[in-house]
Amino acid sequence: GAEGSTLMSYFSKNQIQALKPKITFSTLRDLQCPVLQSNDLQGKPEESCSTEEFFEWLGAVLNQVSLDNNSSSFLSTYCCPEPNTVVEKAFLCTITGFIIPEKIIQLLEQLCCYFGEPKLAYWLTLTVHGFADSPVSWRESEHGFHKGGENLYNFVIFRNLDYWLQMAVGAHDDCPP
């Protein structure tokens, strides 16, 4: 109809093209990291942190929240869960754009190669999140924006290739299978 042809002329006139994903790298120095054991999801006092503690810590790191529990901070008094260790250098790579599942699998495979040589990392993590106001979510459901628009999953992969898969969705969304 007329509406379709108007849209087509708009797109051709403005030469809308698919954007290449944007990639940014950064190095985090002297980062406090929770101690993790791949076979211990609940964590143990003085031995390892739980999956929930790790997920919360990761959110703080990705959002560049200070981990030093400064009481004068108006933003956050969060501190890294115990037990933790200080990592001299951690690498953070962010890829922003429309990324198909096959590319995510490829990324996971490439990340696992990092455990080959040199064996520096005990674990690594890959977080994939949809746009907060994405029209779709898991399964066949529409995505409920309501409050935060949570719509993400996170892999934590260990040196022995065990892994954790964590998922977060909004209260009105279907959970994945």
UniProtKB/TrEMBL annotation:
GO terms for cellular component: multimeric ribonuclease P complex; ribonuclease MRP complex. One of its GO terms (molecular function) is ribonuclease MRP activity. It holds the Pfam family Ribonuc_P_40. It comes from the Eukaryota. One of its GO terms (biological process) is endonucleolytic cleavage in ITS1 to separate SSU-rRNA from 5.8S rRNA and LSU-rRNA from tricistronic rRNA transcript (SSU-rRNA, 5.8S rRNA, LSU-rRNA). This is RPP40 protein. It comes from Onychorhynchus coronatus. The gene is Rpp40.
